[in-house]
Amino acid sequence: MPGAGDKALFLRLPGAKAEEIAELFPPPAHFITYIDGAAVPDKAALMEALAAAFSFPAYFGKNWDALLDCLRSLPDGIPAKGYVLAVKNSGSFLSAAPADLEAFTEIAAEAKKFLAEKAGAGFRIVFL
Fold it and tell me: Could you tell me which residues are beta bridge partners of residue 85?
């Protein structure tokens, strides 16, 4: 799991329930989606999980560049002031692929910056 120091992107709320996440990031202003970290041991599983969670288009290329493009385009398909990816079973998230976790962290940070600057939207990843 990424370091706790990056609070601008990552938030750790072990054991938090969906209601608590919704209180912190109230819908409909925020779009909240959940993935199961236990089902995401590597990049391939991550791409599948994110495509389903954010309803990426069918042409999503399932690579890092395509992921960044789709995350940057979230406001086009899901209008919101903020986007929250909540990861259940976060201790297992990308556990089989530390390099994939590092790459995902970089992509997520870049997407967060872009969304804030260009769309005025937030992007957070909450580890449950």
Answer: 33, 125
Fold held by 16-127 = Barnase; Chain D (3.30.370)
Q: How many C-beta neighbours within 10 Å does residue 10 have?
A: 21
Rounded Cα gap, residues 64 and 111, in angstroms: 11
- Report domain extents, the chain: 16-127
Residue 89, classed as helix, strand or coil, is coil
Which residue do the tokens 């042409």 mark? 59
* Six-digit token string for 113: 């910056």
Residue with tokens 């990426």: 56
Query: For residue 41, what are its two tokens?
Result: 């041991």
Omega before residue 41 within 30° of 0, cis: no
For residue 112, pLDDT over 60 is answered with: yes
Residues 90/114, Cβ–Cβ less than 8 Å:
no
**Both structure tokens of 92:** 């297992």
Task: Indicate if the pLDDT at residue 49 is higher than 80.
Answer: yes
- Per-residue pLDDT at 96 exceeds 60: yes
Q: How far apart are CA 8 and CA 74, in angstroms?
A: 19
